[in-house]
Specification:
By secondary structure, the chain is an alpha+beta fold. The protein is built from two helices and two strands. Strand 1 and strand 2 form a beta hairpin.
């Protein structure tokens, strides 16, 4: 169900996708963390447009300088 901050309506299924969490440590402390997943796969399983999600997350690509 869409919310005010997220107007994209997904289907009711639960998506499943591979992901990875890369962690770098130094002196037993986490200094960097990176989470990687396939956005297109999650969008396809959720029934939403990948392009619409990218515009929502990253803004309009046409405004980016070449």
């Amino acid at each position: 169900m869409p919310a005010a901050w997220n107007p994209l309506a997904a289907n009711a299924s639960r998506p499943a996708s591979s992901s990875a969490c890369l962690v770098a440590s130094l002196d037993d402390r986490i200094v960097r963390e990176r989470f990687v997943f396939d956005l297109s796969e999650l969008c396809a399983q959720s029934g939403v447009s990948t392009d619409a999600v990218r515009r929502k997350l990253f803004g309009d690509a046409s405004q980016v300088a070449a």
